[in-house]
Amino acid sequence: MNALNVQLLMTGNELLSGDIVDSNSAMIAQALKALGIEIKRKVTISDDIELLTQEIENISQQTDILIINGGLGPTVDDMTAQAIALTSGKPLAEHPQALKHVKAWCKKRNSALNSASLKQTLLPDGCSIIANSRGSAVGIMLTHNNCEIYCTPGVPKELKVMINEEIIPLLAQKIPPKMKLEVTRLQVYGIGESSLQTLIDNHFPDWPDELELGFRATLPLLEVKLTSRSSTAKALKTRWLEKLKSLLGDHIINEISSRPISLAEQVLILLRQKNQQITTAESCTGGLIASLLTEISGSSQSFEAGFVTYSNRIKSKLLAVEPDVIEQHGAVSEATVLAMAQGALAKAHADVVIAVSGIAGPAGGTPDKPVGTVWIAWGNSEKIYSHCFHLNGERIYIQQHAAAIGLDLIRRLLINSKEKANYIK
Fold this sequence. Notes:
The chain folds into 3 domains: 6-178, MoaB/Mog-like domain (Molybdenum Cofactor Biosythetic Enzyme, Chain A, 3-Layer(aba) Sandwich), CATH 3.40.980; 181-256, Alpha-Beta Plaits (2-Layer Sandwich); 263-414, Maf protein. Helices cover 40% and strands 24% of the residues. The chain has helices at 13-17, 24-33, 49-60, 80-88, 96-108, 115-119, 156-172, 193-203, 231-248, 263-274, 288-294, 312-319, 323-329, 334-348, 395-414; strands at residues 6-11, 39-45, 65-69, 92-94, 122-124, 128-130, 139-144, 147-152, 182-188, 211-218, 221-228, 252-256, 278-282, 303-308, 352-358, 373-380, 384-390.
């Protein structure tokens, strides 16, 4: 069996006008790539019924699978169902499953079942539906010109679930086991793409060609993908994966089994395992670390309080940082950030702490402490560590970078890492 020929048809005036960036095709491509399916061609067209029918007919004659994204919904510019009906020669008819879905959707939201809602139940006669657990419009599935056509709504959160939970399992059945890819993904923090590639080249000049290495930046993390496409590569993968893990060491945040996780989530996982509490004392990051922690459901189990002490007065009032310390060493100093960490630990009665004080810019820098100077303290009641970082970039990047470093440093403390992080010079 040859590889499946899969093409995409993306619809919507807003895609062509630039009002919306097409992230959906990338989402689809990434999901299919995990199966060993690569998109052969993508076409983007406006909401025009004539263009839609022409493209559906044309593409269906030259591919095995056509995925159409967009144009399913309650408004007049949602034309995909009509276009499929015209192309396949099947009339639009009320689909009982689609009607049941829309009725349940409206009832759950206490909204009226009006003509716009009912438009989503008119589908090409005899088609199958693709369940949509996140939205009101079901997907459409039918065969035309020996091409399997899958139609999905354009809302990204709906598409993501439909692709992963409905379409991917259907396509997986069409691929023989010997043709399926094996992909292992590692989330890494603290090493950039070019540095990591150089590191691998230097340590593994004999890296086997059969094992494909790939990198994808998902700031602040880097995703490292190890892909085996053949039986030979699959036999090699276990040994070389262990070598790669040994090389990366504690820079590895997570080996993805079901979904990626963030630095903050990994910290919370470790805290729960140890039944510990964390607190934060933030100046230049303005509560960003606390925000990253609390955006995760269940964070209250490990995070009760954080302190945003932006001014010197509040540093002294809330965290008991002595005014003499700030006056003698400055707000951005080792002495001050250590005092902030100690004060936060005492005030919150927590087990571990991250404290940050720096100059995020664009103003405020001096020759001795230029913009990007950030002191971070982290530790517990037994010992608090500190380090000065010199970060580059715009204000928001310096804040985000400092927050990520702080979370990674506390992660390393929680796993009792003895390795030196690549970002500590």
